[in-house]
Amino acid sequence: MDKFSWSLLGVLLLLLPFNLGLEINKVLNCLKFAKVDLDSKAVQLGISRGLALRFGLPNKMGLAASVLWAAGRKQSVSLILPLALNNISQMFMTLLFGAVSLVIYWKDISLGNWKWNGLAFGMIIGALVLIWMAKRKWEIFNQPINASLVILLGRDSLLRYAIFTFQFAFAAHYFCPELSLVDHLQIIPLVFLVSTIIPIGFAGNVGVREGVAVGVYAMLGFENEGLILASLIVWLVNLLLPAIMGFLIYLLNKSTVKK
């Protein structure tokens, strides 16, 4: 690797603790507001196991499932809705900034505008249905929506989205230097939006986001296969590395608990 490629990896690794810390903090806030009674060791086991499991499960289901598992059957009911709100807050950022990116490049996309009109209309209907379902579930479980939790999750989701977007844009700029970093920052949200809509999420969306990135950039008139490498490097740093770390921490903590 040359100096800049080492600096590329260095920047991604430097931002990893912030990205990972925000994700863990969101889960801890969910545990706090759900008033789940778990000791610190059980929380560590649940989160470390979740980091390992999320590698092979769609989106954040691995982390959520692991925390629910650690909470136990009785306490998990009160935790389901805060964790759902956690995922909704992150998806909201994807829809919001993806829609902004779509507006910016509306006229530049080579596909017919009627298809993108349909996509935008579908996003609006989907968001309304999502809000209605969330409200309905809260009424069924008789749990009021906590404004403080919404604000905390929204803040951390926004910061995570900003960090991950910058990581992807920085890597894309290295492999696709004909576009400025600002251009990549404007396009990447559209990549996230399309990859979120595609109902495939196993193994951390590996292969999906790479194909979507190439396809979105191609629709905008920029064809560069180096985007596949950019996406893979970001995936390696943000998903595979934490999964390995989580698995090792889980094994270490589990053996300590047994002793």
- Helices, by number, come to 8
Alpha-beta content class: mainly alpha
Rounded to an integer in angstroms, the radius of gyration calculated over CA atoms is 19 Å
Biggest sheet architecture: none
Shape field: globular
Look at the structure and give the mean pLDDT. 77
Multimerization state: single chain
SSE pattern: HHHHHHHH
Distance between the termini: 44 Å
> What is the strand content?
under 5%
Segments where pLDDT lies below 50 for 5+ residues?
none
Helix coverage percent: over 70%
Number of domains: 1
Counted beta strands: 0
Topology, pairings included?
Blueprint: H1 3-33, H2 40-53, H3 61-104, H4 113-141, H5 147-175, H6 181-197, H7 208-219, H8 226-258
Helix pairs in contact: 1-3, 1-5, 1-8, 2-3, 2-8, 3-4, 3-5, 3-6, 5-6, 5-8, 6-7, 7-8
